[in-house]
Amino acid sequence: MVPLQASEVQQLLHNKFVVILGDSVQRAVYKDLVLLLQKDCLLTTNQLKAKGEETFEKDELVDGGQMGPMHNGIQYREVRQFRDAHHLVRFYFLTRVYSSYLEAILQELQSGEHGLPDVVIMNSCLWDLSRYGPDSWQSYLRNLGSLFGRLGQVLPESCLLVWNTAMPVGKRITAGFLPQERQPGDDSLRVQVIEANFYSSAEAKRHGFDVLDLHFHFRHAEQHLQRDGVHWNERAHRHLSQLLLAHVADAWGVELPRRDHVGACIRPGPGLERWRPAGRGPRASPPPRCSPLLPTPPLPLPPPLHLPLPPHPRPFPFHQVMPRCVVCPQDTYYYSDQPFQSDQFSNYFHSDVPSAAQTGFAFEDDFMIDPQPPVPPFPIPYLQRAPVVHRGFPRYAPRGPYGPWGRRPRPSRRRGHSRPQPRPQ
Q1: 159-214: pLDDT as tens digits
Q2: What pTM, to 2 d.p., does this model score?
Q3: Sequential DSSP letters for 146-204
Q4: What are all long-range contacts of 52-56, with beta carbons under 8 Å and residues at least 24 apart?
Q5: Which residues is 160 bridged to in the sheet?
Q6: N or C: which end of the chain has fewer CB within 10 A?
C-alpha cells in the first residue's frame, strides 16, 4: 500500500461529499482525514484527546459539543464539518447504531443543499454493547438489520458505504464512556467486539455494502493503543486513513501512484512494520555499488562437458495402465480465494482417447511399448506463461481529472428496487 500525500488525497476526493458516523474513534478518523486534506503531518496528542471543540484545522462545530453541556451520556451530540472550495467532510457522533437520531440524520442528508453524500464511513459498536442494559446484544443485532435495510433505501447506488469493523480494545479498559459496574480488569468486551464484528460485517455484505476489517489490520498493533485501552495514537490513525483511501480508490477504479519511499511524517511506527523473529535485527542494506579502480578481466568460460549417453533402453513388459495425457486450456485461470472442488478439473482436462472404464476393455499384461529415445542427462526447462491476475476490469483512459490513474470502477453489489424509481426532474 502506497501512502498518499495531501495533494493526492485532494485529487481523489475532489468535489466529493464524505460523511463519517460513529463514536470517538470515528471522530479521530474524521480529524485525520481533515488534516490530510490540507497538509502532510500527523495529529497531535491534544488534537486526538479534544472533544467538542469549536474549531479544528479550519473546520467548524455545527451542533452539540461545547455548544451544550459536556457529558458522557448516551444523549451526547456532536456534529462537525470541514468545507473548502472542492471538499466537504461531515461527522456525526453516534452512541447507537440505529435510533431515531440516525433517522433524523438521514432526513437531514436527504433534504440538505448538498444532496446525498458520495462516501459514507460508519461504525458503532462499543456504546451499543456497554450502555444499553442487559438486552444490549440482542438489540444491537436487531438494529444492524434495521440500519442496513434503511441505508439501502435512502442511499443511491452511486454512494459508497464503507462499514468499519470495531478496532481491538485493550485488556484493561478505563475509557470514560464505560459504566461504573464494568470493572477495569473485565475483558469480556474484547470477545464481544469480535462477535459483533462478525455479525455486523455479515449483515453489511448481505445488503451489498463494503466492509473494511480494521480489527484484522490492527490486531497485532496494540502498542499503538492509548492508556484507556480504546483510543489509538496518531500513527495508527494515519495508517487507518491510508487503508480507507486505498479502499475508496479501489472502489472507484482509481490507480494509486507508485512510490518506493514513505515520508518522514507518515512513516509507520514499530507496530506497523514487518514482523521479525525475536533476536534477529534488521537486515543490513548492501553497500553502494561503485566502479572498480581497475577493469576486472573477464573470467574464462568453462569447457563444455562431454557426458556419455545412456545405453539404448530395451523393451520391457508394462503391467500398469498408462495415464492419459491431459491438456489444460491456456485461457483457464485459477484463483487462490476459490474453494477446491473434486470435479473442478473435469471440465478442462480431457483426452481424445476413451478410457478403459468408458470402452469396456483394459490393457493386457503382456502389452509391450516401443523403445523410447534416450533421455538427456540434464533437465529440460518447462516453459509456461506467467500467471495472470485479474483485478476487476481492464484498464482504459477515462475522461476527467483521473485520466492518468483511471480504471473502470467496480459495479455496485446492492440490489436495485423491485419497482423502477422515477428520476428527479
Answers
A1: 999 999 999 999 888 888 777 666 555 678 899 999 999 999 999 999 999 999 99
A2: 0.66
A3: HHHHHHHHHS-TTSEEEEEPPPP--SS---TTS-TTS-TT--HHHHHHHHHHHHHHHHH
A4: 52/78, 56/31, 56/80
A5: 119
A6: C
Q: Say which amino acid occupies 40.
A: D
Mean pLDDT score across all residues of the chain: 75
Please give the full DSSP string across 390-404, using - where no structure is assigned: --SS-----SSTTTT
For residue 349, the one-letter residue type is: F
Residue type (1 letter), 345: F
C-alpha neighbours within 13 Å on the C-beta side of residue 57: 22
* Strand ranges in 272-360 using DSSP code E only, listed in sequence order: 317-318
The pLDDT-based confidence of 416 (bands split at 50, 70, 90) is low
SS3 143: helix
Cβ atoms within 10 A of the Cβ of 168, count? 22
Amino acid making up residue 168: P
User: What DSSP line would sit under 26-94, residue for residue?
Assistant: HHHHHHHHHHHTT-S-PPPHHHHH--S-S-STT-EEEEEGGGS----STT--EEEEEE-SSEEEEEEE-
